[in-house]
Amino acid sequence: MSVTQSRNESSDETSGVPQADSRFEVVVIPVSDVDRAKRFYAALGWRLDMDFAASKEYRVIQFTPPGSACSIIFGIGITPAAPGSVQGLHLIVSDIDGARADMIDRGVNVSEPFYDVGGIFHHLNGEGVVAGLHPQRRSYGTYVSFSDPDGNGWLLQEVTARLPGHELSSEVEFASSTELARALRRAAAAHDEHERRTGKQDTHWADWCADYISAEQAGKPLPA
Question: Domains, the chain, ranges and CATH?
């Protein structure tokens, strides 16, 4: 984005006309039992936005994951897709171990962590999958998977530093106090390593940690 363009528009290279943002808002999930699906997604701790039933043939339920700008919708009379046919839905988390533990506490059957041998994106049908956390714990590198009762497939992907141009905001923001606490713990651990490496105590540790968290969210190089 150039300094002369607003954050909410980009230039179409073919026409030169500013192009409005198109924000991904909703994914429709096909389910066979809406009440069972509602219980499942509520148990995940997702926010119930709407449960609207006009008749026995038409019902719309919407949930939004914590911190997400995109929601899911399922119900009756809203999609011809077969229940369980949606696969590869990704949820981004900053601490995959903590997120996995939380889901297990909520009674969800979650896979063990894994990463892809190619290091870019996971292959189809489990090909190239390696068990365990990414060896360098690289951002975007580690996944766990789970499914809803109909078999619609989800993945958690650990992202601790976003790629340039993929920042969520120009400001440091957190969806919850839990996410903030995790960021603070990562910054504290990195600062401890910084002090160990330099061999001296940093009296400006708060500024250092603030710079670390800001750089992490913006996808910029982390302070050494």
Answer: 26-158 (3.10.180.10), 177-218 (no CATH)
